[in-house]
Amino acid sequence: MIARWIMPAARTAFRQRRFVSTPKEVFTELSDEQDPKRASIFEYSWGSWLENDIVEKEKRRTQFSIKGLNDLLAQVVKPFQGSVLLPVAHNVSVLKDNVDLVKTGFSHIKQISSIHEGKHHRIYKLQLDHQEDELVLRVPYKLDSEVYTDRRIKSEAATMDFLDKKLGLNVPRVLAYSSVAENPVGIPFMLMEFKKGELLMRNWNPLTPGPVNDEKSKTQLMSVISPIAEFNKRVTDFTFTHYGSLYFKEDGFEHIVDEPYVGETQESLKNRWVIGPTVEKAYYRNKDVEVAVIDKFVGPWTVEQPLKMVADLAQLELENLQKQGHDQAIPVYKKLAQVAEKLFDVESKTIPHMDALLAPRLALPDLDPMNVIIGDETWFIDFEGACIKPFLLTSYPKFVQYSGPKIFDLEADVEDFDKLDDVAKQQYEYMFYRTRNQFYWELALNETNKELLGVISPAVKLIKNAYLSALDAKTEKDYLYVENGLVELYTMWPHYESAAIVKGPNPLSFSEQELQAYETAFRDYQTELSSMPFAATGGWVPQDMFARLLEQKLLVEKNGSYTFDRDKLLQ
Predict the structure, then answer these.
(1) Dihedral sign, CA of 456, 459, 464, 465?
(2) CA 149, 18, 428: angle at the middle one, nearest 5?
(3) pTM score of the predicted model
(4) Domains in the chain with CATH codes
(5) How many angstroms separate the CA atoms of 470 and 487, rounded?
(6) What is the CA radius of gyration of the chain?
(7) Closest-CA residue to 546 (of 36, 57, 42)
(8) pLDDT in tens, 347-385
(9) Which stretches of 114-202 are DSSP H helices?
(10) Rounded to the nearest 10 degrees, how much is the dihedral formed by the CA atoms of 314, 319, 324, 327?
(11) Tell me: the pLDDT tens digits for 16-40?
């Protein structure tokens, strides 16, 4: 049988628009796994790295067996017995309720298209014979440990099922998944239904001109923010019995909570899901410790200890740092562990609705216009890393997140704004736009769920800043952001203690020597980052820009890495 491959074209994903050249069609035999014409559809093509380009691209190579995938789909249409998950092939689970996504009469995959190369996954669209509906094959890059890949795929499948079956939200139905490479497809994967439409990102322009509450710009920005805020409201309205992450009970985790929530009356949903270890990425990223060590710190946690996940994150990172010998970061995480369970007075009356803010709610880390499809209806995708935690400890969606200086009015908040040069004006305008956009998210939160509005408090933001920095830490020097948050908290603690927001006397202490060393290291790190091109993207450069830089000989290659020719840049 012949399948048609739509080969990936040279392209660049911009935040506002996507430019794609015409893709190339190639025909291949389904059974010919060695066909060299297939190679390019597996290779990463959306960008290059300044450091270790070959290695980084190899991590993102997503070769799989098309024959194995075809055989798997043929198995799905056969009748099987099972309550929720059907074991139709080795290490593959199929959701019994969703087998209708493959129509009777299926014979072979007619066409495979590579439609997206994201940060963590490659997305393929499958056209099957004898049916109009299409499927999505999502393949994770080889960026994470096997234990994390296993847990996050299983948890994401269960989370999407929960959002669909329990909450009735518009998310694609999952057909099948495997969390390990030992399966007929030859790689971990998820198969789900394909939803037609345009990305909501096409409507998002964060630099839209207009002051706060300007009718035209506000309408444009809120047309993107509002549907995401409404979806988030529907998700966070539901509360659970513990903190952790969702899994199917049939996936058989050892450390689970059998009753993830109370009051289920629908028979088909009883005993369908459980709460198990969190899949929040920080608990697994760059960890050199054994799985048994990780398992001591990843939950599930009881509602009586809403801040223990903070302490456990700090303790896990200490175990990791001690094994790596990262002496500079160890004192910082010791301080975080020391303060973790005192960050908030959980019985505080100062912060309104503290009980509601501490209740276990589903947190979705990838709420973003890039993950919203606008068609006949609005559909939400990408729930990797979803976890159950207090809303008090969540961060804003990254597309509206801003922690810099707040500027609500350029003329009023910036002295002599009109007299500044163009570069300085642009910097302040950027701060204003980020402030305004985050304000609109907070406005949407106020409109959808006033009970959770306490998270917008400046005190709450400062108190949890060190913890959120620990969640985001990716490089060995990012501990400095954690330390920055701790120093700020150390300074403000007496005020928060008198306001009964934090718990008890200040547990943090910094000597003058420590503060001076921190200030020097933090300043040097900021200078280092500002002097490094593409530091914000980890050295990743969009492919069309990378090609231009090479053509202009502004980049110099050596041993698979690239450096800028600074003399040419300064010309």
Answers:
(1) positive
(2) 95
(3) 0.93
(4) 2-193 (3.30.200.20), 215-530 (no CATH), 535-570 (no CATH)
(5) 14
(6) 25
(7) 57
(8) 999 999 999 999 999 999 999 999 999 998 999 999 999
(9) 146-165
(10) 60
(11) 333 344 456 666 666 677 777 778 8
